[in-house]
Write a structure and sequence with these properties.
Blueprint lengths: L4 H16 L27 H16 L4 H40 L4 E4 L6 E2 L2 E2 L3 H9 L4 E6 L6 H10 L9 E3 H12 L3 E4 L18 E4 L8 H12 L4 E3 L5 E4 L2 E4 L2 H11 L4 E2 L5 H8 L9 E5 L2 H10 L3 E4 L22
Parallel strand pairs: 1-4, 1-12, 4-5, 6-7, 7-8, 8-11, 12-13
Antiparallel strand pairs: 2-3, 9-10
Helix pairs in contact: 1-2, 3-4
Organism: Champsocephalus gunnari
Keywords: Magnesium, Metal-binding, Signal
GO molecular function: metal ion binding; phosphatase activity
C-alpha cells in the first residue's frame, strides 16, 4: 500500500491528537499511570513510566491549541467532500432513472412512462438536479410520457407555467392530475361540492355548481384548514354527504422540509363522522388506469416513476404496472422496504 505525504501528515496529527487528549484521572490512572504514580522521590532518576507521563503532559500542554488548526482544516475538507459527493449523487438521479427505464424496456414491451411531478421533477420552484436532462433524454426513446400528480395546491395551468419556468418542456395535455379525476367523479354523479382546496386550484372546477353543496371534496388546503371549515365539512358528512378525498398522502416535500398532506385531515373527518372517503388520486387503481386510457396501452406496458413508495410505486404495482422509486423529494432511507407488493427481486 502506497502512503502519500498527506496521509502521513494525517497519521501524525491523529497520533499527536490521541496523546493530547489523554487524561490521567479518566483513563491513565485506571492502568496505574495516574498523576502520582511512576514518579520517584526527590533526587531519584525518573523511571521510564515517569518519563512517558512527562512526555504525554508536555504534548498535551504544547499541542492542544496548535492542533485546532489542522483538525479544523480536516473537518472543513470532510465537509467539502461530503457536499461534492451529494452534488454528484443528485446529478446521478437522472442517469439512474434512465438506466432503470432502459432495463425495464428491455425486459417488457414498454410503451408508456408515467412520471410524478412534485418531489420527482421539482420541489416547489426548484428543479431536482438532473431532472430536465433526464426528461429530455427519455423523450428521445420510443415511449409515451405522461405526468401524473396528486397536487391539489394549484390548477393544471398554473402547474404547467411553473414547470416551464423551470425549463421543463411540458404541455398541459400531457398532465393528468387528481383534480381532473375528482372533477370527473363530481360530474358523473352530478354533485354540488364544498371544495376544500386552495384558491389557485379552483380554476380546474370552473363551471361546476357549488351552490347549496351536497358533497365534500377535500384536497390540500393549508389556507382553509381551520376549525370552522373542517367542522362545516364534518356536519355535512355526518348528515350523509359523500366525502371525496382527492388523495390521502400523509406528507409531501416542501422547500423548507416535509409537511403534512391532506391524508391526516381526511382521516380526521373519517374518524369523526364514522365514514370512509372515496379516494380518486394515487394510489387508487382507477387513477392509473384513467391516466393510461388515452395512451392506448395496458398497465403491463407502462411503468411509473415517483418519490413515494406507497402512492407512486405501490399504487402502480397494484394497478399492474411496474414502479421505480427515485431517491429525491419525500424519499427517506428505507422507503423501498415499505413498497407493497414488493418489487420483483431482479429489479
Amino acid at each position: 500500500m502506497a502512503f502519500t505525504l498527506y496521509s502521513l501528515i494525517q497519521t501524525a496529527i491523529l497520533c499527536t491528537n490521541a496523546v493530547a487528549v489523554l487524561h490521567e484521572e479518566r483513563f491513565l490512572s485506571k492502568f496505574g499511570w495516574g498523576v502520582d504514580q511512576g514518579v520517584g522521590g526527590f533526587g531519584d532518576d525518573p523511571g521510564v513510566k515517569a518519563q512517558i507521563l512527562t512526555l504525554i503532559r508536555s504534548v498535551r500542554t504544547v499541542m492542544r491549541v496548535p492542533l485546532i488548526i489542522p483538525e479544523g482544516a480536516a473537518l472543513s475538507s470532510q465537509r467539502r467532500n461530503s457536499t461534492l459527493h451529494q452534488r454528484r449523487r443528485n446529478q446521478e438521479v437522472g442517469g439512474e432513472l434512465l438506466l432503470k427505464v432502459s432495463i425495464m424496456a428491455g425486459r417488457r414491451a414498454l410503451k408508456a412512462v408515467l412520471i410524478d411531478l412534485s418531489g420527482t421533477l421539482h420541489i416547489e420552484d426548484t428543479a431536482v438536479p438532473g431532472a430536465q436532462d433526464a426528461l429530455n433524454r427519455l423523450r428521445q426513446a420510443s415511449v409515451d410520457v405522461k405526468f401524473v400528480t396528486n397536487t391539489t395546491k394549484e390548477s393544471k395551468r398554473s402547474l404547467v407555467e411553473r414547470l416551464q419556468r423551470l425549463h421543463f418542456h411540458v404541455q398541459e395535455k400531457e398532465i393528468f392530475t387528481s383534480l381532473s379525476a375528482a372533477r370527473s367523479l363530481v360530474e358523473r354523479k352530478q354533485l354540488r361540492p364544498l371544495l376544500l382546496l386552495e384558491d389557485s386550484a379552483l380554476e380546474d372546477f370552473t363551471g361546476i355548481d357549488t351552490s347549496e353543496p351536497n358533497a365534500v371534496v377535500i384536497g390540500l388546503s393549508p389556507d382553509h384548514f381551520n376549525y370552522q371549515t373542517l367542522n362545516q365539512a364534518f356536519r355535512m358528512v355526518l348528515e350523509g354527504a359523500p366525502l371525496i378525498a382527492i388523495h390521502k398522502a400523509r406528507y409531501y416535500k416542501r422547500a423548507d422540509g416535509l409537511a403534512l398532506g391532506p391524508g391526516p385531515f381526511v382521516a380526521g373527518l373519517e374518524f369523526a363522522a364514522d365514514c370512509r372517503a372515496t379516494v380518486v388520486g394515487k394510489p387508487e387503481k382507477c387513477f392509473f388506469t384513467q391516466a393510461l386510457s388515452d395512451l392506448g396501452c395496458s398497465p403491463t406496458e407502462a411503468v411509473m416513476i415517483g418519490d413515494d413508495a406507497r402512492d407512486d410505486v405501490g399504487g402502480a404495482q397494484n394497478a399492474g404496472m411496474l414502479g421505480i422509486l427515485v431517491r429525491t423529494g419525500k424519499y427517506r432511507e428505507g422507503d423501498e422496504d415499505k413498497i407493497n407488493p414488493p418489487p420483483p427481486p431482479d429489479m
